[in-house]
């Protein structure tokens, strides 16, 4: 993966660049899945962050859970999530997602250093993802929550290497300059 391809992954529609990783241990909570699928997601999250050399814990001391995954058949089911507007800061989110025909939505919160403090992911399983294999979906969602990708990503060995490189402790937890893509590419090649 060359620097230009890496830069594209973190360049937002407004042209700004943001590559941020988690600044604290990940404390996942998964809602709306059957127990057999839940185990698959927990294992994928642990394996994905272990590959990045980043800790996964049971509880975040400030928020309890900081990686929250919500699975619904239809966006209207989100109306049953207590204080969803406060949780997301986005009033009317279910209606907006339904109006856009979205299958998933990801929202990041950041700490004072710019690192990821929380990630909320909403997945509508009644649409295009209805037939997705749980393990493949778990891997994809884990990778998408590891860094602030500006586009949808598809799991691959190159993407796994990029995530591992981004978690190198010598790199900043967040970068807004495109030169960061050069540093990531160099670490992937090493």
CATH architecture of the largest domain: 2-Layer Sandwich
* Rounded average pLDDT: 95
**Widest sheet, order of strands:** 2-3-5-4
Quaternary arrangement of the chains shown? single chain
SS-derived structural category: alpha/beta
Number of helices: 7
Biggest beta sheet attributes: 4 strands, mixed
Cα gyration radius (Å): 16 Å
Shape descriptor: globular
Helix content: 25-40%
Tell me the domain tally.
Answer: 2
Order of secondary-structure elements: HEEHEHHEEHHEH
- The top level CATH class name of the largest domain: Alpha Beta
End-to-end C-alpha gap: 13 Å
Q: If you consult CATH, what is the topology of the largest domain?
A: Chitobiase, domain 2
Low-confidence stretches: none
**Beta-strand percent range:** 15-25%
Question: Any overview of this molecule?
Answer:
37% of the residues lie in helices and 16% in strands. It has 2 domains: 1-20 and 153-190, no CATH class; 22-146, Chitobiase, domain 2 (2-Layer Sandwich), CATH 3.30.379. The strands form 2 sheets. Strands 2-3-5-4 form a 4-stranded mixed sheet, covered by helices on one side. Strands 1-6 form a two-stranded antiparallel ribbon. The protein has helices at residues 3-10, 35-51, 84-88, 93-100, 134-146, 157-166, 180-189; strands at residues 19-20, 28-31, 67-72, 104-110, 116-124, 174-175. It contains 7 helices and 6 strands, in the order αββαβααββααβα. The chain is of the alpha/beta class and 190 residues long. The longest helix has 17 residues, at 35-51. The chain is globular and about 45 Å long. The two termini are 13 Å apart. Helix 2 (35-51) links the parallel strand 2 (28-31) and strand 3.
């Amino acid at each position: 993966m060359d620097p230009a391809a890496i830069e594209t992954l973190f360049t937002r529609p407004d042209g700004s660049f943001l590559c941020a990783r988690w600044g604290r241990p990940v404390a996942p909570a998964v809602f709306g899945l059957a127990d057999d699928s839940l185990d698959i997601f927990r294992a994928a999250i642990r394996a994905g962050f272990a590959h990045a050399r980043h800790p996964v814990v049971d509880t975040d001391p400030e928020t309890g859970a900081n990686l929250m995954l919500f699975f619904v058949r239809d966006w209207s089911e989100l109306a049953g999530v207590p204080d969803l507007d406060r949780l997301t800061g986005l009033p009317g989110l279910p209606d907006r997602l339904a109006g856009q025909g979205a299958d998933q939505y990801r929202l990041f919160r950041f700490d004072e250093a710019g690192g990821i403090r929380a990630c909320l992911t909403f997945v509508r399983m009644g649409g295009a993802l209805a037939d997705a294999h749980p393990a493949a979906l778990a891997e994809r969602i884990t990778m998408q929550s590891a860094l602030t990708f500006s586009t949808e990503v598809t799991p691959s060995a190159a993407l796994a290497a990029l995530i591992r490189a981004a978690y190198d402790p010598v790199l900043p937890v967040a970068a807004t300059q495109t030169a960061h893509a050069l540093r990531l590419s160099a670490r992937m090649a090493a």
